Task: inverse folding
């Protein structure tokens, strides 16, 4: 019983706004990459719009990744959200890079 009481009174570490921002931007960039994959699989001609959207998504994911890494170094915030703030834009960058290399090799 005493352990439960001590756990409930422990102060939890706050969540950094930068990690929330970087994880949401990473999720949006990942969704843009998925949309670009489906657009390229359909074979329809959309002009230069998918290319511009892919470049903007890559730039945003690089910015979000750098913000996530900067925030991950701070130990004042919750460790799980710091990890998500780095992993989400990192996965988005990886998917976009794979999409670009597939376009170069098979395009």
Result:
């Amino acid at each position: 019983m005493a352990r439960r009481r001590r756990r409930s009174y422990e102060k939890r570490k706050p969540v950094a706004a930068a990690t929330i921002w970087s994880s949401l931007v990473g999720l949006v960039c990942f969704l843009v990459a998925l949309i670009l994959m489906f657009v390229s699989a359909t074979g329809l001609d959309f002009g230069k719009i998918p290319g511009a959207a892919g470049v903007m998504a890559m730039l945003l994911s690089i910015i979000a990744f750098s913000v996530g890494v900067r925030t991950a170094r701070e130990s004042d915030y919750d460790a799980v959200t710091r990890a998500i703030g780095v992993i989400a834009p990192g996965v988005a960058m990886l998917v976009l890079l794979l999409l670009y290399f597939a376009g170069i090799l098979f395009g």
Remarks:
- Residues 25-106 form one domain.
- The two ends are 64 Å apart (CA to CA).
- The helical segments are 2-9, 17-42, 49-72, 79-106.
- The chain has a mean pLDDT of 85.
